[in-house]
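Example record for the data management plan.
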Amino acid sequence: MIFHPGEAHPGAQVTIRPVTAADYPRLAALCGQLWYPTTLEQIEQRLAQFRQDQDHCIFVADLDQSSVVGWVYVYLTPSLLHDPQAEIGGLVVDEAYRGQKIGEYLLRKAEQWAVDHGCWAVSVHSNVIRTDAHRFYERLGYQVIKTQLALRRVL
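Corresponding structural encoding:
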């Protein structure tokens, strides 16, 4: 999928494609913009766990085939309670490229991946303080379905 991001970067071309190992440093850097500081080594370890797993996928937004300016991570969430659906595990666009539909194109690519994998829905969890993200998702047709607590026990 190729598109032009908008007036802020005239003539630029963005390609949405699957991630490659060469993209890992940019994935790590962009994680920091989501407030999840991540090292290259952590990205390599995490992606090694599901590189061959067809239930996980990462797409990147590649500007002029030279710089990754965003990514989306999507995975299947099979359940005893419902038919297969997909979950957006993360979506980030570089701060310098936000507001140019790059996030929308990444999200649409993830949704198509979900359809291709037999999913009936795509879900996303977003921290209550990320109001810009909430507006983004709602503008693209996502609806708030519930409010809940997130609990964790560190092992």
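Summary line stored alongside the record: The longest strand covers residues 67-77.
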